[in-house]
Specification:
The protein is of the alpha+beta class and 148 residues long. It has 6 helices and 5 strands. Strands 1-5-4-2-3 form a 5-stranded mixed beta sheet, sandwiched between helices. Strand 4 and strand 5 form a beta hairpin.
Length: 148
């Protein structure tokens, strides 16, 4: 099941949270697709495949921001090729170098603000608005239709 929520980000949220990503500001800010996942979720792999496909189609038009939500750091020590986390990271790595913080304070704050209660989840932030979609089989193209 997917749920759409349109939230208008306050100027203080958008400015301080998105500026921390370190992307240089050149003209208009690129939309950012946040992908929230967990190491144990089997749906994370399917969500990662959707994110990678979406990014390939919209290369240079959208930034991808990965947010791994961890509640047990021991999962990282037990990383095996058969684990959902390994498969998810391998899929995401096909996009290029991975930037996935193990402890992502900003990502946790955003997950709380946007009401991310299940994963995988996607949030597209564009023009000061956030559009949320939950589940591994969402149509990410529909998020772009709400950009203006």
């Amino acid at each position: 099941m997917r749920t759409w929520i349109l939230g208008v980000l306050a100027a203080t949220w958008g400015g301080s949270l998105l500026a921390a990503q370190g992307a240089p500001r050149q003209g208009a800010e690129l939309p950012t697709l946040f992908y929230f996942f967990t190491p144990k979720s089997a749906g994370s792999l399917e969500g990662a495949k959707r994110a990678v496909t979406f990014m390939k189609v919209h290369q240079g038009q959208v930034k991808l921001r990965l947010v791994m939500l961890l509640d047990d750091f021991s999962v990282i020590r037990k990383l095996e090729e058969a684990s959902p986390l390994y498969k998810t990271l391998k899929e995401l790595q096909s996009q290029g170098t991975l930037d996935v913080p193990l402890y992502d304070e900003e990502g946790l704050l955003l997950a709380e603000r946007w009401g991310i209660r299940s994963v995988p989840a996607f949030v597209l932030v564009s023009h000061g608005r956030a559009h949320r979609a939950l589940g591994p089989v969402v149509n990410l193209e529909e998020l772009l239709e709400c950009r203006s």
